[in-house]
């Protein structure tokens, strides 16, 4: 008889029913979900506290002279030191040891950048490109498949832009509130989210409709307490400061999800309400697009009303995905849903526009790019090349590598730009940062190109 060479059986054979029953535990109940939620909240608070100071607030780390001159202000280290010595009124930094490296807050770095931008060589880019007289660019990061790095990509792009000198607003449209957590936001209820801005837009529409009804001798439709209260809410009252001096936040929390139920009710009552314009109109009316350079919109992983608002508001749409068949397939379906959704809106609106002799509606974006995230070149190069062949310019040629730095920073409850490079192997830090810097460079090229096209359009219109 030959010996059995198969080795041990897989673990799914010979499971004892009584042992399985003992392992099962009691049946789950609705009340049990509450206990699970409280446990997660306690754990979340514990993890978040690792990035907090003793007073419960997050602070951004300091930046060394080496880091400033390598990544933030394009000057030689020796020249940087000479400029500080010649200008004692500029921030001088602080040393942790006598004669040690100088460290600066980001606020101080921004002041130094402004000085070099005014006094330094005009051939160098000390200040980021930003045409005068044009509004902020709005950037939506979206995909209805979860786990593709959507929130992480949006957060790191916001941090990159802030380090580059732009003033950034981050708007969290996802009721899970992950982006809000990244930036340390505190949101008590839906009235501290974008919800009142959407409600205000509908209330203004309804008020206009009521005026037309009264002009026809008809009774006006009442505004309920929610709509009446929303009329008094300005976007500025929703904006929170973060531990980044030039990143502000409009946060989200679970109650924001009720907007997905409330918006269709408003839509049924007010057929003429252009809900897809709600976010843009309110941010523009409140001066938000003049107060910031870039507005990042983190959308839910679903094509609901909040996502539609974010996509319609955006000038640039970024779609993160992994280099896998399932994510490529899912992203294709996402683009198909975008086509169906926005085509149906255009068709419905333009039927009425043609009948009334008005301009037709046509949604337009400066650029749409898919971005490969969590890329492993040793295993995914062939599939990424195939995706590039099919998507062409739509797929950014830059792939965002997964490096050890990403995992280590995540364990410390930080974005990679928030992590102190001294906590890592220098090579790991430089390599990990390179892939995110390249992601930002690809995005910044889109941003500058879009602004330049707008500026040339204004110039041609004025001639």
Automatic annotation (TrEMBL):
PANTHER family: P-LOOP CONTAINING NUCLEOSIDE TRIPHOSPHATE HYDROLASE, PARA FAMILY PROTEIN CT_582. This is Chromosome partitioning protein. Residues 137-328 form the AAA domain. Gene3D superfamilies: P-loop containing nucleotide triphosphate hydrolases. It comes from the Bacteria. Signal peptide: none annotated. CDD domains: ParAB_family.
């Amino acid at each position: 008889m030959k010996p059995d060479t198969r080795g041990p059986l897989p673990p799914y054979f010979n499971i004892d029913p009584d042992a399985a029953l003992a392992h099962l535990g009691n049946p789950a109940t609705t009340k049990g979900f509450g206990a699970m939620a409280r446990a997660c909240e306690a754990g979340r608070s514990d993890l978040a506290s690792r990035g907090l100071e003793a007073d419960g607030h997050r602070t951004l780390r300091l930046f060394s002279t080496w880091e400033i001159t390598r990544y933030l202000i394009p000057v030689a280290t020796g020249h940087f030191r000479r400029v500080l010595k010649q200008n004692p009124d500029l921030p001088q930094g602080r040393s942790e040891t006598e004669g040690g490296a100088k460290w600066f807050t980001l606020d101080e770095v921004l002041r130094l950048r402004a000085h070099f931008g005014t006094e330094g060589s005009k051939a160098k880019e000390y200040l980021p490109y930003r045409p005068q007289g044009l509004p902020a660019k709005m950037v939506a990061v979206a995909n209805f498949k979860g786990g593709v790095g959507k929130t992480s990509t949006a957060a790191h792009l916001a941090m990159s832009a802030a380090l580059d000198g732009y003033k950034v607003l981050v708007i969290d449209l996802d009721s899970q509130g992950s982006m809000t957590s990244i930036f340390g936001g505190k949101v008590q209820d839906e009235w501290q989210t974008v919800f009142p801005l959407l409600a205000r837009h509908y209330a203004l529409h309804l008020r206009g409709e009521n005026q037309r009804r009264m002009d026809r001798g008809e009774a006006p439709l009442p505004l309920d307490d929610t709509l009446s209260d929303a009329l008094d809410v300005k976007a500025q009252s929703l904006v929170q400061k973060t531990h980044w001096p030039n990143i502000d936040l409009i946060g989200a929390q679970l109650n924001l999800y009720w907007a997905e139920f409330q918006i269709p009710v408003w839509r049924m009552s007010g057929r003429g309400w252009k809900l897809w314009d709600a976010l843009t109109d309110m941010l523009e009316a409140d001066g938000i697009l003049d107060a910031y350079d870039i507005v990042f919109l983190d959308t839910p992983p679903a094509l609901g009303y909040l996502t539609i608002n974010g996509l319609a508001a955006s000038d640039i749409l970024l779609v993160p995905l992994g280099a896998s068949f399932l994510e490529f397939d899912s992203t294709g379906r996402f683009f198909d849903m975008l086509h169906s959704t926005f085509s149906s809106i255009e068709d419905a609106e333009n039927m009425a526009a043609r009948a009334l002799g008005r301009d037709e509606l046509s949604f337009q974006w400066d650029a749409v790019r898919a971005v490969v995230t969590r890329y492993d070149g040793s295993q995914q190069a062939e599939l990424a090349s195939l995706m590039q062949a099919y998507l062409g310019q739509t797929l950014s040629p830059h792939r965002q590598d997964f490096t050890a730095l990403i995992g280590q920073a995540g364990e410390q409850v930080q974005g990679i730009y928030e992590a102190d490079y001294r906590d890592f192997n220098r090579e790991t830090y430089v390599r990990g940062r390179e892939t995110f810097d390249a992601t930002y460079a690809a995005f910044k090229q889109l941003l500058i190109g879009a602004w330049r096209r707008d500026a040339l359009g204004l110039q041609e219109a004025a001639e």
